[in-house]
């Protein structure tokens, strides 16, 4: 085995806060399938984007096939044989498979004919055992086919080091197994394959060595998979300390049931039962793409359940009627605040008024005057209520959202990653205020990405994996068990 | 995990037209003013090449508007449909609903209103009743055509730009048919409708329609600034997903916006018939629906700005009409200058945004 790539001391920081990568070393060998394991935001994808030339490190050295990399561009890295299949595919949906291949690797100046393209696709597909229909536009192919085409395109450029980002997230089990088999063959052919994943199952099903990242640092450096079991990898992934003793706040979780979800299912989300009482904080943990987005949409009333019901205080939660939701005192803090909560060109005062207020509005001066106390109370730092929301920093923008949503003693608070991307001080204030709302009698559902945070705030914790919810965990939380549940521990 | 698609099919249009409502203070006035000025300067150069002394020609243009009572009246008459249609377009474009179907809605309104006002069975009714009924029907017809655009978008995802543009041709064909067959005046050799007669708007030559347009300006301003609908229009323009999470389904607001814009265009159509032409002819449509887009953009998507821009463009038209009589100026010159205003406006708009 020779070294396909060596990364040394890679650092990368986006904005303030914790660096995405904090001095990461990684060494990849030819002929192996290497698993890169970690939670959301552990830095897996960032690290591999750097290797593929899609991003630059702030510091550190990358050596591919013995030569140090100086130009971090996708083209330069492709020329060195590094190819990455990203989670979001980069195919042209209106072109056929062959046309997509020809676009990436043109042969000659003329646009190739249909038969020529068909031959090119079939030849590649046959050689690597990755069947793809050549005659249909990519948009009509299944997700699995699109992924195979992405891989074929990389192999067409003779990739020696192939990176697959969460390749099985979109596949059914059979497809996933077939893909792992292909990866095995590619490795046997003298290539190196990296699989970014958070599923323990496939680490054991098809990988030789495993590197685990946690919060931008390596906690397990290329150890043989055979030396590990599920439990040890789950522990490495999420850390070993349990939820720092007693949570910051414990209340009476025996208030009346406010939110009741009965057998509600939506797309990826399997039928789910939940009850959250007044004054209770329910944490929802899980890796992205396991049903959180669907549950968030259900609880926010932006999508109706395909089956089952969602009720608040006994009455169905209004779907598609946001003003009614707000009148029922259901607060919603979306996970993407700029996309779903704020109209950026509009003023702070106007943003505070969204979903509230009468048909006739007072004059601009009066509106801004009326908005000032709320902005002060939440310490939203801006030049005045007339400032456009686009001028706010992330923390202040989130405070603005909460100032609006938590006004008027909500009965239910649906908060999706309310502290994401915020500095610790802003995160602390926002956490405090949401817990205050719970203490005042609200039922709170808190979708979280960081276990430490969830352990500190949640009275109960459910984990979503593969669209199913686990039985609720209760404090003191067993980080280990939660980690296994997040990694899909209860399937196979 | 799947191929990401662009949510809005009208992105290039969006980029081109969206800046007007967001431009900062000075540029909001300076950009359109300089665009008009620049267009007039280039227009002068072109006239110079044609052998006309530009300054005396422009002198005649100014005299044509301000040098006689009729000049100002004509300006007001031409500005009337531009203001009415421009107000509707202002509302639509603030919501980033880029309809260009006003011309067709204007024709539809005029046809429907005329058909009602000249209908045989209603001939005995008093003039004001016919007039008001005609105006109401005109609003409904304009809204109806715009509503078709809205429905095509919400049902099939068809681009508002494309469908609204193409429906203009449907309306033009309907006009050609109507004046020859549908509402043709049987007593006339040339294809035209009957005169609306008693249903005409009071006032000659300056008809009451100008007053309607003047009143509509503050009304629209108040609706935009002081009502929930006005806020929803701006939120739809800023971020439809936020509208969906906090206020109402965007499709509903988009539908209302299109209906209102179509209503204004339809109203302008019958106001033109009842106030100016008296009847429909094959040459009825003269492009007000398109010029009003320029008016709305020059006016910074603000009602007062629309009024000013409409008066300026109408004044240029009237002035050149007059100047063409005194000098040998090709009649295309006005069109060239209008086009140049658009070019300079778009360029100036891009420049003013780059400096920020």
Question: Outline of this structure?
Answer:
The complex is a heterodimer of chains A (492) and B (356). Chain A is α/β, with parallel strands linked by helices.
What would you note in describing this structure?
The complex is a heterodimer of chains A (about 500) and B (about 350). In chain A, about 35% of the residues lie in helices and about 25% in strands. Chain A has about 500 residues and is α/β, with parallel strands linked by helices. In chain A, strand 11 (about 255-265) and strand 12 form a beta hairpin. Mean pLDDT of chain A is about 85; it is low at about 240-245. Chain B has helices at about 10-15, 25-50, 55-65, 70-95, 100-115, 125-155, 160-180, 210-225, 230-240, 240-245, 250-275, 290-300, 305-325, 330-355. Chain B has about 350 residues and is an all-alpha fold. Chain B has one domain (about 45-355): ABC transporter involved in vitamin B12 uptake, BtuC (Orthogonal Bundle). The relative contact order of chain B is 0.20. At the A-B interface, helix 10 of A face helix 9 and helix 10 of B.
**How many independent structural domains of chain A?**
2
Proportion of beta-strand residues of chain B: under 5%
Low-confidence stretches of chain A: 242-247
Q: What is the number of E strands of chain B?
A: 0
Oligomeric composition of the shown chains: heterodimer
| End-to-end C-alpha gap of chain B | 36 Å
CATH architecture of chain B: Orthogonal Bundle
Determine the N-to-C terminus distance of chain A: 32 Å
- Series of secondary-structure elements of chain B, N-terminal to C-terminal: HHHHHHHHHHHHHH
The strand count of chain A comes to 20
Average pLDDT, all residues of chain A: 85
Instruction: Supply the CATH architecture of the largest domain in chain A.
Output: 3-Layer(aba) Sandwich
Number of helices of chain A: 17
CATH fold label of chain B: ABC transporter involved in vitamin B12 uptake, BtuC
Structural class by sheet pairing and helices of chain B: mainly alpha
Which descriptor suits the 3D outline of chain A?
Answer: globular
Number of helices of chain B: 14
**What is the gyration radius of chain A calculated from CA atoms?**
25 Å
